[in-house]
Design brief:
The protein is α+β, with helices and mostly antiparallel strands and 484 residues long. It folds into 2 domains: 10-241, Aminohydrolase, N-terminal nucleophile (Ntn) domain (Glutamine Phosphoribosylpyrophosphate, subunit 1, domain 1, 4-Layer Sandwich); 262-314 and 325-446, Rossmann fold (3-Layer(aba) Sandwich), CATH 3.40.50.2020. 28% of the residues lie in helices and 25% in strands. The strands form 7 sheets. It has a 7-stranded antiparallel sheet with strand order 3-2-4-1-10-9-11. A hairpin with a 2-residue loop joins strand 15 and strand 16. Helix 5 crosses helix 6 and helix 9 (262-276) packs antiparallel against helix 16. It is globular. It starts with 9 loop residues before the first strand and ends with a strand.
C-alpha cells in the first residue's frame, strides 16, 4: 500500500577500490528506496577511518564538498528507515566508534528481537550508548569480545543476538559481511575488477558496473583482509526464513533476490490473484509504483487491458506542510492524482500490493469516487496482514492493522474481508491467499517468513515488544522471550 508500509534499510560495501566513497555513494543511490531518513559512508585508507553521515536523501547528504572529505579504498554505506530507534542524526549509520583494538564501523539491515534486552544488560555493566538503535548493540558486543581477531570477535558477538541481520562491519584494514542464519534480509556479493562489492540488492551492483557473483548465504560470514577472502558458517544451521515482503513491496523490481527476479515474482502474484478473484471490468490499474508489476500480471492473466489510472508525482519528498488542516486527503493527493477522463464511468480493477492500516486505501478510494468511477473492484496481491513484523519491516502495532482490528467478533476470513470492504467503500474486495502467494515465488515455500500473515514467527520474540515511539526512545526493562 502506497504510503503505509515503510521501507527498511539498505547497505553497500566495497573493498580494494580506489575512490571507494564515490562508488558507495552510487550504490546507496540505487538503494534509496530502502530508506529515506538518513544516509552515511565510512571509509578507510588502511590507516585512518573517515566518515560523513546526515539526515535526508543520499543526494542531499552528500554534496561534492562533503563526499570529498571521506577517503579510502575500503568502505561501507547505509540508507536508513527507522524500524527501531528515533529518527535523528545520532541513529544514522554506519556507526563509527573506537575501542582498545582501534576503530570499528558497522551498518545493519534488519531488526534484533533481543536488542532491547541486550542493551539493558550492557548498560547494567557500564556501557554508554550514543544512539537508540538496536544496531549499536552489536558494536558493544564486538568490543567486549575476548577474541583477538576481528572476524572472530564479530562472530562471537553475533552468536548472542537474535533476529534479522545483514551486516557490513570494518576496521582500518578488514571488512566482514554477515547474513543471519534465517536469511531474513538479502545481501549480494559482486566483483568490479579487483574490487569486491556487497549490496542489499543487485540493482546497486548494476549501477556501479559490478558483476553479480552470488548471494551471501544464510548464516554465512565473508571476511576480506588484503588479498584473502574467506567464508565461514559458524552459526547453527536452521531452515531459511526469507522475508516474503521483500518480494511484495520492499525490493526494487529490477533486482534479483533470494534467487528470483522481483519483477517476475510480482507479476506472478498478480496472475495468481486473477485466478483466485476474477471480475468483469473495463480495465486494470495499479496503485503506483510498487503495485505496477502485480497489476500487469493480473491484466495478462485476466485478459483485461491495463491502463494508468493514477499519475504519481515523483518529485515529492518525505515531508510536506498541509496548507489547510481541513484539506482531507492532502497527503495522498500531493503524491497521487487520478486521470479523470481515464477512470470516469468505468468499472476498474484496482490492484494494490498490500493493505496495512487501510487509511490510505480509503483516501484513494474517495479520490476515485470523486471522479465518478462506476465500479471499484479492489484486489490485493498479498494476504491480510494480521501481525507486526519484528525483523525489519516497519508495520505498526497490530492494534493499528486493519485486518487485525476487523477480525474481532468475526468468525472467519470471509467476514473479515467483508468488514474491510465496507470500510473502504469498494464494490468487491479480494486478497491473495498464503498458498497462492508462496506459489508465485517459485521457491520452496518453507523458506519464507510469513509471520505477519499467519503468526508463525521463526524466532522467539519479546512478549511485550512494541514498536518504539519515535518521539520517545525510552524502552522497557522487564523483557521476556515469548516462544510463540
Amino acid at each position: 500500500m502506497y504510503g503505509e508500509l515503510k521501507e527498511e534499510c539498505g547497505i553497500f560495501g566495497i573493498y580494494n577500490q580506489k575512490n571507494a566513497p564515490n562508488w558507495i555513494y552510487l550504490g546507496l543511490y540505487a538503494l534509496q528506496h530502502r530508506g529515506q531518513e538518513g544516509a552515511g559512508i565510512v571509509c578507510s585508507d588502511g590507516q585512518v577511518l573517515s566518515a560523513h553521515r546526515g539526515v535526508g536523501l543520499v543526494n542531499d547528504v552528500f554534496p561534492p564538498h562533503k563526499l570529498a572529505r571521506v577517503k579510502g579504498y575500503i568502505g561501507i554505506g547505509h540508507v536508513r528507515y527507522s524500524t527501531f530507534g528515533a529518527s535523528n542524526l545520532r541513529n544514522v549509520q554506519p556507526f563509527l566508534m573506537s575501542y582498545f583494538q582501534g576503530p570499528i564501523a558497522l551498518c545493519h539491515n534488519g531488526n534484533l528481537v533481543n536488542g532491547e534486552l541486550l542493551k539493558y544488560q550492557l548498560e547494567q555493566k557500564g556501557a554508554i550508548f550514543q544512539s537508540t538503535s538496536d544496531s549499536e548493540v552489536m558494536i558493544h558486543l564486538i568490543a567486549r569480545s575476548k577474541e583477538h581477531q576481528f572476524v572472530d570477535a564479530v562472530i562471537d558477538a553475533l552468536k548472542k543476538v537474535k533476529g534479522a541481520f545483514s551486516i557490513l562491519t570494518m576496521n582500518n584494514k578488514e571488512l566482514v559481511a554477515v547474513r543471519d542464519p534465517f536469511g531474513f534480509r538479502p545481501l549480494w556479493i559482486g566483483k568490479k575488477g579487483k574490487a569486491i562489492v556487497f549490496a542489499s540488492e543487485t540493482c546497486a551492483l548494476d549501477l556501479v558496473g559490478a558483476k553479480w557473483v552470488r548471494e551471501v548465504e544464510p548464516g554465512e560470514v565473508v571476511h576480506i583482509c588484503g588479498n584473502e577472502v574467506n567464508s565461514y558458517f559458524p552459526f547453527k544451521e536452521v531452515v531459511p526464513k526469507q522475508c516474503i515482503f521483500e518480494f511484495i513491496y520492499v525490493a526494487r523490481p529490477d533486482s534479483v533476490i533470494f534467487g528470483k527476479s522481483v519483477d517476475q515474482v510480482r507479476k506472478q502474484l498478480g496472475r495468481e490473484l486473477a485466478k483466485i478473484a476474477p471480475v468483469d471490468a473495463d480495465f486494470v490499474m495499479a496503485v503506483p509504483d510498487s503495485s505496477n508489476p502485480a497489476a500487469l500480471g493480473y491484466a495478462h492473466e485476466s485478459g483485461l487491458p491495463f491502463d494508468m489510472g493514477f499519475i504519481r508525482n515523483h518529485y515529492v519528498g518525505r515531508t510536506f506542510i498541509e496548507p489547510d488542516p481541513k484539506m482531507r486527503d492532502f497527503g495522498v493527493k500531493i503524491k497521487l492524482n487520478p486521470s479523470k477522463d481515464t477512470v470516469k464511468g468505468k468499472r476498474i480493477v484496482l490492484v494494490d500490493d498490500s493493505i496495512v492500516r487501510g487509511t490510505t486505501a480509503r483516501k484513494i478510494i474517495r479520490m476515485l469516487k470523486r471522479c465518478k468511477v462506476k465500479e471499484i473492484h479492489y484486489r490485493v496481491a498479498s494476504p491480510p496482514i494480521i501481525n507486526s513484523c519484528y525483523y525489519g519491516i516497519d508495520t505498526p502495532n497490530r492494534e493499528k492493522l486493519i485486518a487485525y482490528t476487523m477480525s474481532k467478533e468475526c468468525r472467519n476470513r470471509e467476514e473479515i474481508i467483508e468488514k474491510i470492504r465496507r470500510y473502504l467503500g469498494v464494490d468487491t474486495l479480494a486478497y491473495l491467499t498464503i498458498p497462492a502467494m508462496l506459489k508465485a515465488t517459485g521457491c520452496d515455500p518453507k523458506h519464507f517468513c510469513t509471520a505477519c500473515f499467519d503468526n508463525n514467527y521463526p524466532t522467539p520474540i519479546p512478549s511485550n515488544f512494541t514498536i518504539p515511539d519515535k518521539e520517545n526512545s525510552a524502552y522497557q526493562h522487564d523483557l521476556t522471550l515469548d516462544e510463540r
